[in-house]
């Protein structure tokens, strides 16, 4: 009934719009007198079989902010990764998509809540952490930076050592007091994460693992919550942090190429080895 070229067009409809419905595909086919000029009618079950034949199934639909892959954001990612590379060298809806790929749709951006834990990680593991039952603010981040400064200067006695602090764009990170702190500590430099780019900061993976570590400690049942939050940080191994850093680096080439990145952990759940980047 359908030629292979026509089936490819149907598949492309789904790849272009993961939340397209079978009835919408049906209408597109009937109304297309160029590619589907030999098709007068088609049932939904037939379309379902064609999609299944091409390994396209129903799956969870992931929402992606409209601005996530705008030219402005991709340019900022490109600049961010170029800086990172230099410093690393120096120191209930459902949709369809191909098996192994997430189904995605674009939505307006929304701001989520903040964690009540501040932590710093390096290639060697968790460097410093501080749990707080209230929201973080400029004064708390200054105290955290002061303690971080004490830790790294005690660990590294090398003259003119440079430290790069990578974090996101929450308002208190850009407070005047915080800017003054970095001005007074020239050995520290701040690098702000581009918008909609948590996949470029391995601390996001740390927090995901940390939440489960807190849960395993059974807060309120065996020990106070804030104590569980602190202890959970000590259960994160350096090998895990190193793996998260490698995962972040896999996105670098895509950002330098200004590619679209659809989901926090990449739209390709099982990446093609030819596209993976894990440069040491």
From TrEMBL:
Top-level taxon: Eukaryota
Record-linked Pfam families: DDE_3
Record-annotated Tc1-like transposase DDE domain positions: 92-214
Record-annotated membrane-spanning stretches: none
GO-annotated molecular function: nucleic acid binding
Protein name: Tc1-like transposase DDE domain-containing protein
Species lineage: Eukaryota, Metazoa, Chordata, Craniata, Vertebrata
């Amino acid at each position: 009934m359908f030629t292979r070229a026509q089936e490819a067009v149907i598949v492309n409809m789904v790849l272009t719009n993961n939340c397209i419905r079978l009835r919408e595909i049906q209408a597109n086919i009937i109304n297309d007198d160029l590619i589907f000029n030999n098709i007068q009618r088609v049932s939904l079950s037939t379309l379902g079989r064609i999609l299944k034949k091409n390994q396209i199934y129903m799956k969870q639909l992931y929402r992606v902010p409209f601005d996530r892959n705008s030219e402005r954001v991709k340019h900022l990612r490109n600049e961010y990764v170029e800086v990172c590379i230099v410093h690393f060298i120096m120191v209930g809806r459902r949709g369809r998509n191909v098996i192994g790929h997430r189904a995605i749709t674009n939505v307006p951006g929304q701001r989520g809540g903040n964690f009540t834990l501040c932590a710093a990680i390096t290639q060697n593991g968790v460097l410093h952490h501080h749990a707080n039952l209230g929201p973080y603010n400029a004064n708390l981040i200054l105290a955290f930076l002061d303690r971080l400064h004490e830790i790294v200067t005690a660990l590294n006695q090398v003259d003119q050592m440079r430290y790069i602090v990578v974090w996101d764009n929450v308002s208190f990170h850009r407070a005047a007091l915080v800017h003054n702190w970095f001005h007074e500590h020239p050995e520290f430099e701040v690098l702000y994460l581009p918008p909609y780019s948590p996949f470029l900061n391995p601390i996001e993976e740390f927090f995901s693992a940390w939440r489960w570590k807190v849960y395993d400690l059974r807060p309120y049942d065996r020990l106070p919550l804030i104590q569980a939050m602190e202890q959970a940080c000590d259960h994160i191994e350096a090998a895990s942090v190193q793996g998260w850093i490698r995962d972040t680096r896999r996105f670098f080439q895509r950002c330098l190429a200004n590619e679209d990145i659809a989901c926090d952990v990449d739209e390709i759940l099982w990446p093609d080895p030819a596209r993976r980047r894990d440069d040491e």
